[in-house]
Sequence to fold (185 residues):
Amino acid sequence: MNLDIPNDFNSDSDDKPFVACKVCERDLTDSHTPYTIEKAYKRVDEGEDVTLFEVAICIPCAEKQSKKMSKESKAYIMKMMGGSAFMEKRQNRWDKNWRDDWKSACLFTDENIKINDEYHIVGQFQDGQIIPTMTPFVIGQSYIEEIQENLSIETKEEMDKFGEQFLGPDPALRALLKDHQFVMV
Ligand SMILES: [Zn+2]
Fold:
C-alpha cells in the first residue's frame, strides 16, 4: 500500500517534508510519534494558491494546545471534526483512489474550492508516512467560517497566541493570521 505523504504537505521553505515538530522540535521522521500537518491556502487564481501558513505539530504538543481551549470550544470542535459521519467518510475515501481528487472539495461539505476561497489541508502521519485509513483531507471555506464563528473568544485568543509564536516570523503572515486561525484536529 502506498503510504507516501503527498508533496502538498511539504514545507514551503524548502519543498521537503517536515522533519520536526514546530513546537517541541521533536524529530518526526523516526520517533514513532504521530503528528499532524496543516497548511492553509488561499486560491488566488485558477490553479494558483498562496500559502497562508503551515505547521507540523506532534500529537503530544497538539493535545497540550487543545487543553488551552475552552470547554465549549473543545466540545464544538469534537462535534465538527470527530463525528462518526466524518470518520466514516474519511475511511471510505481511503478504500478508493483518494489521491486522484482529495484536494478538489471540502470533505465535510463537498463544496469545490473556488477562486478567492481559503482552504486547509490536513493529514495525520507517523514516521514520515500516512497513518493507514487516515486519508488526508480538505476543510473548505464555509466550514472554516462555521468553526471560527463558533469558537469562544478565549479559545481564539489562545490560537492567536499560538499562531504568533509558532506559525512563522514573517510579519505579513502574522497580520494574516489574525483572521486566519488554524483549526487543529
Ligand atoms: Zn511537539
In short: The chain has one domain: 7-176.
